[in-house]
Write a structure and sequence with these properties.
The complex is a heterodimer. Chain A contains no helices and eleven strands. Chain A is mainly β. In chain A, β5 and β6 form a beta hairpin. By secondary structure, chain B is an all-beta fold. Helix content of chain B is about 0%, strand content about 60%. Classes of the chains: A mainly beta, B mainly beta. Chains A and B meet through β5, β9 and β10 of A and β4, β5, β9 and β10 of B.
Amino acid sequence: KAGVTQTPRYLIKTRGQQVTLSCSPISGHRSVSWYQQTPGQGLQFLFEYFSETQRNKGNFPGRFSGRQFSNSRSEMNVSTLELGDSALYLCASSLDQGGYNEQFFGPGTRLTVL
Amino acid sequence: SQQGEEDPQALSIQEGENATMNCSYKTSINNLQWYRQNSGRGLVHLILIRSNEREKHSGRLRVTLDTSKKSSSLLITASRAADTASYFCATDERGNTPLVFGKGTRLSVIA
């Protein structure tokens, strides 16, 4: 089975722009979770989608949004980028509810905001 | 918010030695998981231990869970240079909650 894929792998944007990141889960996995990883804050949970519904949301401003499509692929969007949004964004998929089973992570998208 | 907290933050050992990392958490949990991350890459799942289990093994890995102390430990035996990575514990609180990660332990295994 193919693993979790994320595109793009690297991205450079300037403040005020918006960005869309994509994640394709492992075939058959219905849950997709997104995390932001920075050196200072570690891994912070953004949101989880399950069967196209947002199941959980982390403590991030409304500039961060996401969605899941009927084929379980997911996208996250960050509008009005700030310097502090520079981070590694990780997507993870699992068979069912994100916390109860092991999660399979993609390689991440490295976002740099200038 | 951080649920799990790993200790130590960094650990440096010689190849062949054992490495022990600890994780403490705050609330009741369904399960606790350990992940490894090689520099700047995605995380790899190592082991999952349910709240009703006390010990689990997988190859050179041994995980223990003490729910009364709200703590877990990960032991890597006969470490190798390839074990050099950051190790994270993650927990899900009881109920429909997402996985919450600690800040990790950076392990360096010197050949």
